[in-house]
Amino acid sequence: MKTAIILLATMFTLACGYGSNYNSMSMAPKPGASVTLSDLSPDSTKPGSAAFVMTINGSGFDTSSVVYFNAVAHSTTYISANQLMTTITASDVAGSGTFPVYVRSNNANSNTMNFMVQ
After folding, report:
1. CA distance 74 to 88
2. 116 pLDDT higher than 50
3. CA–CA dist 20, 3 (Å, integer)
4. Potential cystine with 29: which of 42, 98, 108, 115 (Cβ 3.0-4.6 Å)?
5. Edge-to-edge strands of the sheet including 36-41?
6. What is the pLDDT of residues 10-25, one digit of tens each?
7. Of 98, 97, 69, which Cα lies nearest the Cα of 84?
């Protein structure tokens, strides 16, 4: 009798999916999805420069990708799975410093690259 109850409880638990990694409310990226930055162009400027277009090269980009410059989301143009473009404003580079750039896509952040203003 105990064996039958344990077997029944095990079958019920497995049928309900208890213990699986599936969670429909999860914000985690899809397995295998990764966003990687490899190059910023330009990767530096002088303080007080005019606005310019930055090209971000990497991999894993899609139409939901957003470029973050100094932790602020910037309007992003999707070119391909390997390239994005965004406009960096004059106020973004008004002062000198090192500013982190990353891309958020499919609820995942890429690696961070530094943009130098000096």
Report:
1. 8
2. yes
3. 24
4. 108
5. 36-41, 52-59, 83-88, 76-80
6. 554 545 544 444 443 4
7. 69
Number of domains in the chain: 1
Of 31, 35, 48, 102, the C-alpha closest to 71 is 102
User: Residue 103's beta-bridge partner residues?
Assistant: 67
What is the spatial distance between Cα 106 and Cα 79, in angstroms, rounded to a whole number?
A: 17
Q: Could you tell me if residue 6 is inside a domain?
A: no
Within-domain flag for 23: no
Which of these, 3, 4, 110, lies nearest to 59 by C-alpha position?
110
Task: Quote the CA–CA distance of 107 and 75 in Å, as a whole number.
Answer: 17
